[in-house]
Amino acid sequence: MTTSLKVDDKHDRTHPPNETTWIHATKAFLRWAVTPLGFCITIYGLNVVAWGGMLFLLLCNAAPAMCHPSCDDPDSARRVWIEIDSQILNALFCVTGFGLAPWRLRDLYLWCLWRLGRSPRTRYGGLVRLAEVHSKWFCFSATAAATAATTATEAPRTPTPLWKMDAVVWGNFLNSVFQVCLAVCMWAMDRFHRPSWTTGLFVALACLGAAGAGVIMWLEKKRVHKASEHPGALLLVPPSAGAATPGNGYMHLNRGGSSS
């Protein structure tokens, strides 16, 4: 009996908790992938990976049979498929670059209210609205936000640094701007007259903008989620300061304005 228990204990130790975590994560992904939104995003991501991988292989001359009469000949199969892949990837990137443009313009408008507003009330309202839109990763206190809007400086006790909101708003917006530039170059000029540097430049800039914003949101979301398990980690303002709602913020500013 003792030997049997030891064997069972050894068998349990050979299956670390990480294995169970991966199993749960895989099941959660499969449940999400069968939803309409999850299915569309999965198909979109697979297309980007597939066509991007094919373009990479073509650029590396991984298919010598397509280099006829030469690899750099404009009429060779390699150059033709490079153009086809580039156009397909451009269309895929346009789905997000153009499709998300209305929401990105809204964020830019709110950013202008926050950073360029003439009154503290306008600046505070823009920041509060941005915080509501990005509540999944951005958190702040009403008192800190009002202080930042009034003094036009970083709020010292804001859990999420305000520069991260600047980076996310402008990163997403510039992604759409550079995607427009890329689409104009891809559609207005043919492959014989299009400068080769335009495609690489605008693809790189668009990807850097979206990737920068995405990394900031992902890291901050993880930090906020982890800190929610230990409330003291975020150094939040005590509950007496009030919740971060437009009503509380406007009341705070109105009281400040009337007292001055």
TrEMBL record:
Pfam families xref list: DUF2985 (PF11204)
Spans traversing the lipid bilayer: 36-60, 167-189, 201-219
Record keywords, A-Z: Membrane, Transmembrane, Transmembrane helix
Keyword flag Zinc-finger: no
PANTHER family tied to this protein: ALPHA-L-RHAMNOSIDASE C, INTEGRAL MEMBRANE PROTEIN (AFU_ORTHOLOGUE AFUA_5G07110)
Name assigned to this protein: Alpha-L-rhamnosidase C
Organism encoding this protein: Aspergillus indologenus CBS 114.80
